[in-house]
Amino acid sequence: MVALIVGLKWQLLRNGLRRSTPQLVGLILGALYGLSVLVVMVTGLIALRFAVPSDVARTAVVIGGSALTLGWAIFPVIAYGIDETLDPARFATFAVPRRDLVFGLLASSLVSVPAAVTTILGLATVITWSRSVLALLVAPVAAAVAVLTCVAVSRVTSTAFSAMSQRRRGREAVSVLVLLMAVGFGVVGSSIMKRLSTPGLLPHVADVLGWTPLGLAWSAPADIVNGAIVSGLLRLVLAVIVLGAALLAWDSLLRNALENPRGTTGDRTTTRDAGLGWFGRMPATPAGAVAARSITSWRRDPRYISSVALMLLLPLGLLLPPLSGGSKLWSLAMAPTAGFLLGWSMHNDIAYDGTAFWSHVATGVSGRADRLGRLAPTAMAASALLPGYATLGCAITGLWSLWPALFGIGLGFLLTGFGVANVMSALQPYPVPGPGENPFGAPPGSSALTVAVQAVAGTAVFVLNLPLVAIGIGALAGNVWMGWLCLALAVVLGSAALVLGTWWGARIYERRAPELLTNLSRIR
Amino acid sequence: MPSRGSNSALSLCGLSKAFGSTLAVDRLDLEVPRGSFFGFVGPNGAGKTTTLSMATGLLRPDAGTAHVMGHDVWSDTVRAKQLVGILPDGLRLFDRLTGLQLISYSGLLRGMDRTVVVERARELLGALGLEDEGGTLVVDYSAGMTKKISLACALIHAPRLLVLDEPFESVDPISTSTIRQILEGYAASGGTVILSSHVMDLVQRLCDRVAIVAAGQIRAVGTLDEVRSGMTLEERFVDLVGGQTDVGEGLAWLRSSSD
User: Fold this and answer.
1) Does B81 touch chain A (CB under 8 A)?
2) Which domains are assigned to chain B?
3) Mutate to test the interface with A, among B75, B92, B125, B165 (most CBs of A within 10 A)
4) What are the boundaries of each domain within chain A?
5) What is the pLDDT of residues A379-404, one digit of tens each?
6) Which of A108, A446, A482, B40 suits a disulfide with B196, CB 3.0-4.6 Å?
7) What's the count of helices (H) and strands (E) in chain A, helices before strands?
8) Contact: A277, B57; criterion CB under 8 Å
9) Chain B contact for A281, CB < 8 A?
């Protein structure tokens, strides 16, 4: 049975390679890149064998190994939906004894590219620690335990996550949470790295990690090399216990998954008042209806929630240089950045509808109503964010006279972005994750189109706003009147771009609505 | 201005559509008289959904015309779309809306008055047995409930012609009978229904006119009795469409239970 499951995994891996030539070329390029990274890392691990204070080797291996283990633990959450081929729930209808299934799935998990990479790295650490006979005995065992622990924790998270993802709410909550963590880490990560690279701190980090479940196995041989035999063996024993605990946890999750392969449907979202919500608040026109629908989707669909979070957090990233002692002038860019992101981000809005767009085609809603209604949620967000970020930028720098210029450039970017988006989203939608799919995932085979459309939209918005930016720089140079000119021009230019873009986009929409629907059903 | 076929609720003429090198619909002609309850049956891949999409303005035909009550779907688009209610198959809904919101959205998109929309939406929820689910997100509905809410969306503007693609697929018997009653009431009051289905039995009981379509062309069309010519609809269907139905002596191991 174990052999059968491993064989299944191997077959799936091979079938995955049976693709079109361009995809294969991409895959080979990716593999070459991965291979070169692997070669560098293995070389590094071998070089560490000769590092003069062996502490350097310990610090590097323990921190790197812990990060690797952590990566294995969270990868299934980020990548859910990418590889569910050996989802345990799919074995539920076959009468496979659970013991066989546990070992079969564990063994099959080892048949994968990440597992192969981890195994090679684990073997390389054996060379790193080949400094004494005892270390040479302990290191392979520790490496095996470490690699198995990686695989086991990833099975635990993927099984737990797959059980949770039977419930829509749970799945959506987790994916938004992970996105926020990723963005948050991206924003503060650089300053953490800066702190960490303070001399002498990294060994302490390794000390702490070495006693956590993440680093136990990786640090055991280091102790042996350093002569701390008892502590090294203790770590090894603890690492084995951690592995056993992970396997037990996985076994019990698996039992749950096999006994309730479908989960129970208790997952209903009933709104508090069973009324119309935003449909009662917006004007009772087709445009108002589209606006109400967009706003409602923004509040309930994790794909929108994720992008809103991104748009909120990215401008805040400009606060980092001032906070970490850099130039305060960075914070002035917050309002323009937010304006650009908010306006530009609408250029593929229609793709998020997916084939649900049919209701717009079937009801024959006018292009103007469709175009304008979609802007409502972004316009509402911008009406709070743009003045807020402009004020924040002024408060940090103390340059209050720049407020009209900052708000003006932000507004200009927003409105021209809307105009460009109204044309672009009627012209060429590109694939996005469907509702309920992983918001991180991008459907394969679409990146060229995605990049092209994004670049065209971005360039158009930027070029249209060059005059505003130029005047804004004049305002920064101290000409207060130029700030007011900037604001006035933003209102005029932006409104013109919006009106023109909506008119043009509406014409394209009305001519091409059925083709758009065909396009949307093809890219889904 | 009503031009050709104005006593037909739906009139298709020379409709064609190719996807790549496959001809999905091949110069198809069809007249659906006003007030009829029309069944559109055919095997998988016969071009039913493609035909109905082209007839309702969701998919542009390569050639041919479609008229709804005499209005050309592809030139007099707005007027034609006002007269039709659609329940498409295999397309998503804005499922993050509640049931009530989704029905209201269909009405408001058509520019209807909000009080009328809400009144009708609540009535429809009641008639379809969904009154307690009006506040639930459509994404959390069962398949049968989703079909019913789609039907409500198609009915909200009181269309003259209802085009329903597989309205009974994965619908339980109780909901099927609810939908049936609503459709029969609608047809009795002069509305025209055209529905596609795989369930011959249901079409036979429900429809007064039938068209059998295969490989993008109409094989038989007329009143139910004309089409089935003395057989059951299912027999006539298999007869016309062909294909192997007698499994013969194969699968012998399946029939003799060995224990």
Assistant:
1) yes
2) 8-242 (3.40.50.300)
3) B92
4) 2-81+91-259, 289-523
5) 999 999 999 999 999 998 888 999 99
6) B40
7) 23, 0
8) no
9) no
